[in-house]
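Q: We require from you a single protein entry containing the residue sequence and its fold in token form, and nothing else.
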Amino acid sequence: MEKKKNRLEYEVFPLWKFLGDTFGMEATFEQFGPYHGANIKPKILDKNTIEVNMPLVLSNTNYVGTHFGGSLYSMCDPFFMFILMWNLGENYIVWDKSAKIDFVSPGKGTVKAIFHLADEEIETVKQIVAENKKTSRFYKAEVVDENGKIVARLEKELYIRRR
């Protein structure tokens, strides 16, 4: 009997692929349930950068009238992973491994976060994976209010390897 390796595999969910190819990823994200409900608006600035905005509306307001922490995390969750997937291509596996969010101050009004990975980081990841077969990388972002005041700090750990 042939022993199967326990390998982590995935493919882009066909509905996401269809919606992204047909309407674009920004429109697809806006219709994604958690994003639509919390009024989260991602904007792809370039292949390495995504800006995400979230105004304070009834559906993302917590008990004390500020941004709900779950919505703040949700607006940050997938974007480093997407940037790496887009830049590395289909020959790589990218998974979220861990996340940490620190709520620094109450969020009111519109909050935003910018997710950016430089080309140099993409090349570093390729080099490390070529040498070591896999890697875990940490990326950070901040959620800020309209005045630039930090509302939350996010740290994501991503696992990356070749298929």
Observations:
- Residues 13 and 19 are 10 Å apart (CA to CA).
